[in-house]
Every structure is written in C-alpha cells, then in structure tokens.
Design brief:
Elements: E1 2-7, E2 23-27, E3 32-35, H1 42-49, E4 59-61, H2 67-70, H3 73-79, E5 84-88, E6 95-98, E7 104-106, E8 119-122, E9 125-127, E10 132-135, E11 151-155, E12 158-161, E13 169-174, E14 177-182, H4 189-200, E15 206-209, E16 214-215, E17 220-221, H5 224-237, E18 240-243, H6 249-259, E19 263-265, E20 271-273
Parallel strand pairs: 3-4, 4-5, 5-8, 14-15, 15-18, 18-19
Antiparallel strand pairs: 1-2, 1-20, 2-3, 6-7, 6-11, 9-10, 10-13, 11-12, 13-14, 16-17
C-alpha cells in the first residue's frame, strides 16, 4: 500500500503546509481511500501539490469526531461527489476539550453531516470488503493517556468523560501484509494493537497514526516511564510504526531512541510504501 501524508503537525519540506491534524491518502491494490481530512482545506492543497486527484477517492474513513481529523469533511464533499463516508454513529454527538482557563471548547464535527446520504454509520465491526475492515470494539485498559481526562462529551447540560465510542480503526490486508491505521488512538495504541491481534491471530506488519501521548491543554508529554513501557510493548510486536501528530515530539523522540528504525516520523508531504524495509 502506498501512503501519502497530506496533513501532519510537521512538514517534510517547506513545500507542504502543516497543522495540528492528520490526513492520509491511501492507494491499495484495489482501492483509493482518504483517512481523515485534517482541520480544513490543507489536505486538499497538499494533495494537489503531490499530484493527487481527490475525485479518485472511493472511501472516506473518519477515525473519530475531533475537528483536527474531520474539519476538512466539507471541503472533501466539494472535491469528491461519489465516495462513501464511513463514520461512527456517536461521532455526531457533542464533544468538548476543557482548556487551561476551564472553558469548554467544542471540538466535534458538524452534526448535520449525519443526514448526508453518502454517510455510512458504522457499527463496532464492519467488513467493507475482503481487504478493508473497520473496528472500534476496543476494551483494553493498559497505559491510558492522561490527556484524555480533558476530553469530554456533553449529555444534556452535563459534561462527562469521553468514552471514545466515536473512534474507529482501519485494517488494510493485501495478501500476506496487514496494515493497521489509528487516528489518535484515544483508547490506547497498546489496546488497539492487542485487539487487532485478537481478531487476526497475529501482529500487524505496519501501524500508522498518532498515539495521544501529548496533552495540548497542559502542553506536556506523558511521563517518560509510561512512554518506555509502551515502547517495550511495541518492540515485542516487531511491527513498523509511523507516528506523529498527537504522539507529541518528546514522546516520538523517546520511542525512536528506544526502538530505532522500528518507529518512523510522519510529516506532511511524506510518501512511503508500507512494504518498504
């Protein structure tokens, strides 16, 4: 599978814009997908610079409801008239981030998107076809991110801890090769990878996405001891990990120092084949 990084927190070069967000253009042996769309228009601008035509996208996958992943959906709907959008039903609820001044900032996608006829509201597990699979039924509780405490959902007039029932993960399988893609891994990258293994009876070959090891409200990385524990787990899987975005620069550096080339940074403009060594 070929991956084009359209949006990331950093850029491969000054030719590509960056923002706090994620968007990946995926070319498999039989399909073209867009996984997330960043905050707004940047994904489309970088796609054009990379020579990509968004009209060719067959499937749009939203990893979860936060605006740094779904803010670009209106632009995608303008650029592409045919793709189906796979979005969790709970993604149309109201989600907030509690900021340092104790204000609650709305961070969820436009709920009116629910009524778009191209939207497929995905269950806990969905086989799109024999090569593409979505799952959200992650129940493990290992190594939770402290940054999740500042992410809330609103029920009536009350704010409650987000359960991340709006989060889903993508599996792409081609012959003997399996790639797992997670947007922010709010349910924990260890728990998500473990759930993959429960489903498939093996570890993924490649994992792509953010690990949510940085707290933007407190502007602080997770405890280095926790990051090292996660690194110990990642090493045992022998998978290659491409990460950035909400992993945070400090945690990403720690993981790269610990695991070497097993962990590789994502940046806007980065293009790679998941079968490359």
């Amino acid at each position: 599978m070929r991956v084009y990084t359209l949006v990331e927190n950093t850029s491969l070069s000054e030719d590509y814009g960056n923002e706090h967000g994620l968007s990946l253009y995926l070319e498999t042996g039989g399909h073209t997908l867009l996984f997330d769309a960043g905050c707004g228009n940047l994904f489309a601008e970088n796609a054009q610079k990379l020579g990509l035509d968004l009209k060719n996208v067959e499937y749009f996958i939203l990893s979860h409801s936060h605006l740094d992943h779904g803010g670009g959906i209106p632009r995608f709907l303008q650029e592409n008239q045919t793709a189906r959008l796979y979005i969790r039903e709970r993604a149309f609820d109201r989600f907030y981030a509690k900021r340092a001044n104790d204000e609650y900032q709305l961070v969820s996608i436009d709920p009116t998107l629910r009524d778009n006829p191209r939207v497929v509201r995905t269950p806990d597990h969905l086989m799109i076809d024999e090569n593409l699979e979505l799952f959200s039924d992650v129940s493990g509780q290992e190594f939770p991110s402290s940054a999740n405490r500042h992410l809330l959902m609103r029920e009536g007039e009350a704010y409650r801890q987000d359960t991340f029932a709006h989060e889903q993960n993508l599996i792409v399988e081609e012959r003997d090769h399996a790639v797992l893609i997670a947007g922010c891994a709010h349910k924990g990258i260890v728990n998500i990878v473990n759930r993959f293994r429960e489903k498939k009876g093996r570890w993924p070959d490649v994992v792509i996405g953010g690990f949510h090891l940085y707290n933007p409200t407190k502007k602080r990385s997770e405890d280095p001891a926790l990051v090292r524990q996660i690194g110990d787990f990642l090493r045992r899987t022998r998978a290659i990990y491409y990460t950035g975005h909400c992993t945070g620069p400090e945690a990403a550096r720690l993981l790269i120092d610990q695991l070497g080339d097993q962990v590789r940074p994502l940046s806007s403009g980065l293009v790679f084949n998941t079968r490359d060594p």
